[in-house]
Amino acid sequence: MNNLKVKDKKMEEIVAFAKEKGFVFQSSEIYGGLAGAYDFGPLGVELLNNIKKSWWKANVQKKPNYYGLDSAMFKDPRVWDASGHTSGFSDPMAECKKCNTRIRVDKELEKLGISADEKMSEEEINKLFDENRDKIKCHKCGSSDFSEAKAFNLLVKSNLGDFTSKESTPVYLPGEACQGIYLNYKNIVDSMHPKIPFGVAQIGKAFRNEISPRNFLFRTREFEQADTQFFVKPNENKEAFERIKRERWQWYLDLGLSKDNLKWSQHENLVFYASDAWDIEYNFPTYGFDEIEGIHDRTNYDLTQHTKFSGIDLSFNDNGEKFIPWILETSMGLGRVFLAVLSEAYDKEVIGGGEERKVLRLKIELAPVKIAILPLMKKDGLRENAFEIFEKLSEKYNCTFADTASVGKRYRKQDEIGTPFCLTYDYDSKEDDSVTVRKRDSMAQERIKIKDLEQYFANKL
Ligand code: GAP
User: Fold this and answer.
1) Ligand 1 centroid distance, CA of 331 (Å)
2) Closest by alpha carbon to 314, among 126, 170, 181?
3) φ, ψ for residue 24, nearest 5 deg
4) Cβ(220) to ligand 1 under 6 A?
5) Among 4, 20, 91, 454, which residue has the fewest nearby CB atoms (within 10 Å)?
6) What would you report as the CA-atom Rg of the chain, rounded to the nearest whole angstrom?
7) pTM for this structure?
């Protein structure tokens, strides 16, 4: 149980903590930092990988009719014409006439409580913008003198393989990871012979030229998505959609997010081909509730488009019955979920003597380091004997070995990064072949025989 409630937590503090402890760094920091890009540090990459493992287990390993995939990021440029990204993947942007700072008009209108989104036409958005211009201020200079809102395409272009001409067709970085699944639908059908319905799951990078990247990992220009696409017979979508919604909600609870910090939000404005769309939102400290995952009923749009643009028939043959499958999608932003997990786990409490203890209350399966091995002293053979235990346990678990500062200080350091167990080798250990195991949340300690440690942790990790 956390002591701090969401209202007691400040995102600014969590961002500083993430940097200080080696979870997340700004990209290219020594050059002043590149907006909208972040690097995961030594502890961050462990936490990120543990979130991915949990997702993969739930969506691939535990599901007999779901298949895993890892597709290339570069794709034939026609993919993005078929998907509608080259023509319609844009956000409404306006520029401050005084200092040229760009703003995202739909987000500014939302801040005023006006329902607006990127799916509106330029005309619709400009009407709302004009009615509210005086209330919208430039983030940099405070002026309200903006250009008209214009659709700004978010695809990131590359010149892959273009060494000579200036006019060749650009190759795009993926605007969404799921297109790799649609492109491999036929390969999976032909190689794995699935029965319909079936799912394909993938974790992949996406890139968007966001007009105003903001809120740390929440809106970045490079990010990772964990997607599932579930292929069903036409009109056999409703039951599967409800099942998928239930499972995705439960996964977040299993990850340790509290149900009070999660909520559903149904889309009011659907894209023209979708038949239903829901977001799962998380209550971020300081930012409030916002989307971490989208669950979309995309009908037969994607495979119909790729059939049209590629000329390859992507219909499914179910014992002689041919049809283009409908697709139910789940798409989660890993950076956003990482930030939700870190925010949820971040806690402080006052312990004996009025001391404040910072503790990251991560679920054990997510903790970057599972066991810290601490020799009481570096001398008298304690270090060497403790290191032997480290070598043995690190065969199975991600362990750390720390032999500087007092044991009390070392415990606090491990609490801060969420290590669930500390193990101390002291002078008595030489006599009784036992160590002290101390638990992160309760701080309770027990003496365990060294020969029983593997069994002890096998029951807990
Ligand atoms: N294929 C569907 C799709 O891409 P989306 O709602 O645009 O749908 C899915 O994105 C998820 O990706 C979002 O719920 C969010 O978690 C994450 N996401 C989208 N844009 C992002 C950005 N600029 N930075 C970080 N995460 C982002």
Assistant:
1) 7
2) 181
3) -140, 135
4) yes
5) 20
6) 26
7) 0.95
